[in-house]
TrEMBL record:
It is a multi-pass membrane protein. It comes from Ictalurus punctatus (Channel catfish). Belongs to the CTL (choline transporter-like) family. The gene is slc44a5b. GO terms for molecular function: antiporter activity. Its main location: membrane. Choline/H+ antiporter. Choline transporter. This is Choline transporter-like protein. It is found in: Cell membrane. One of its GO terms (cellular component) is plasma membrane.
Amino acid sequence: MGRKTPLSPSYCGEPHKFDPKFRGPVRNRCCTDTLCCVFFVIIILSYIALGTVAWMHGDPRKVIYPTDSYGQFCGQQDTANENKAVLFYFNILQCANPAVLINLQCPTTQLCVSECPDRFITYVDVQYSYSRNRSQWDYYRQFCRPGFNTPTKSVVQVIRDEDCPSMLVPSRPFLQRCFPDFITRNGTLTVANKTIFKDGLGKSRSVSELRDAAKFRNSVSFKLGVNGGGVLSLSGISSLLDAKEIGVKIFEDFARTWFWILIGLVITMVISLLFIFLLRLMAGVLLWSVIFCLIGAVGYGIWHCYWEYRTLKGKPDADVSITDLGFHTDFRIYLQLSQTWLIFMIVLAVMEAVIILVLIFLGRRVCIAIALLKEGSRAISYVTSTLFYPIITFLLLAVCIAYWATTAVFLASSGEAVYKVISAQPDCKYSNMTCDPQTFSQGNVSSVCRGSQCVFAFYGGESVYHRYMAVLQLCNVFVLLWLVNFVLALGQCTLSGAFTSYYWTLNKPADIPACPVSASFRRTLRFHTGSLAFGSLILSTVQFIRIVLEYLDHKLKGVHNALARFLLCCLKCCFWCLEHVIRFMNRNAYIMIAIFGRNFCASARDAFFLLMRNVMRVAVLDKVTDFLLFLGKILISGSVGVLAFFFFTRQIPVFQEKVPSLNYYWVPLLTVVFGSYLVAHGFFSVYAMCVDTLFLCFLVDLEKNDGSASRPYYMSSSLRSILNNKNHGRTEERKRGGALRRK
């Protein structure tokens, strides 16, 4: 029937046998993989408990707001710092001290202020001019300790007691922290047009020292978890400070064009629907056109290579072999050799021969793939509600990701404020020891280590909960992977159930069950939650291992151990391949679950053997489907992108007056292109699932049935005509019906 040279059953399992009771998706089902379902429910309940505990102990303000040296939040409402949202460093030059990298904290007082300083000024200058100009002191005082108002206090005492900074430097806020306002002029780094300034202690300092201190401070902030972790690489601090202004402009562009962006996405949705429905008519034309264009292009390449080879043949300089010429960075030299064009011609000739041989021996399988693509378009037109199921998947994924992010933030902000001794002296024996800011001034640490302070370090604790915080964060990530893969598996199995209801119907569309998507969704959740959890658990485990390997690779980048890097690279490659294999097998296992209602392992085994018995058809269909869908996504997103380009650049006369003025027209343009690709991908993912489901149903149909009256084919007439198969019983019935009408 389907295969003329079937593989041995011992290698690929036994073909499906005819079952007179089988009429499509099995209705009398039982719960599958119950133990895994129970385990999955326990994990979800534990995850809810983890989120509850994190919510009880955590405080997101610790992540949202910067914290000063006294453990107070900058910018928090209903506090003394409500209008002071920026963190200011008394002496940012201290941040360049090597102790910063050890203690992860700057050995200088950190204060919440309302705005960053905008001028160069020292405490000595302010004190000197206090009797004549008190406005200078009023400005300077806002960067001193709250309540300090003694400008006559000696400079030595002020610096010793950390009452005020010794100097102010023009700064700009970045990550809610004041950093020097660096500007590069003619290749020279400056701050307020200065390269040298006074530090208020009688010394002249270079702007490069400020740059080094700012780099250290950014590194520490990111190590402590600001904006997600990782060390910030500063090739130019001014570029990073300008990022905020660029971000504001981008936000303005979004605010002005969000309506037109939505219109672009709606247009994408309409075009995607039209493309899916038109595939029923143009799938074959499109694919064969591309194939013949490819053959023609390769043929032209062969002719061009032969022409270049014949032209260069016989020239003295062109007869040199590539091996004699050796390696050159200028590849144009090789194009002047006849041997190069001969190699190109041979390679293209081999490619042409392979393409033609594939078409000769796999032509029928290509026709089957095209027929299945057309059948998929027809199935979606009858079960249109499947196109809107990705909205449910998106909402469920949004809930999972939002819960994970909230739990991660509350876990990271759990614990009480921990204060540590920070000293600029590297040999201070009290450095990095915990302390109490209320009693620190009464001890002898300040006298032993001059300039040391008891400042806020981080949030934490000594309980079991706080000691295993990293483990809880890893568990949070793993459960997220499991839930995300489960949601995707639920969508795949639900769509498969709906499309199997379509395929296993002889009279289409009259006998298609009502509400196939909702019925399949209820059936999947009721009977196969355990199987979906089992499959998603396997995939999540492999993905988690890949994340760990990526982390290790990041940590070992500076290690010069070739063997370790090679082994790690091999492991990453192996697990990447394993993930894709498992993802492919899970997808087909869910289809078999939707058809027969068996457990995950049995369904995966049946799907694997079924595909192995039809391995060539699988390869052809997979590549043809991937190619057409990729072509469709590129075509749709590209077309909408071109339309958006002409619109936002005011090149469409009808809409010129309606286009808002923009800072960067590429902001809405890229948003429309990227969003269009995602929308098209959402619709085409349903179409791809439809084609895969119909393909497996088609293979099962070939093995179970033979076209007789008692075992009719369920496939469409176009598929039967390609295979030269007919439903003989139905033909005889039509003949008998015609004879009766003639009588």
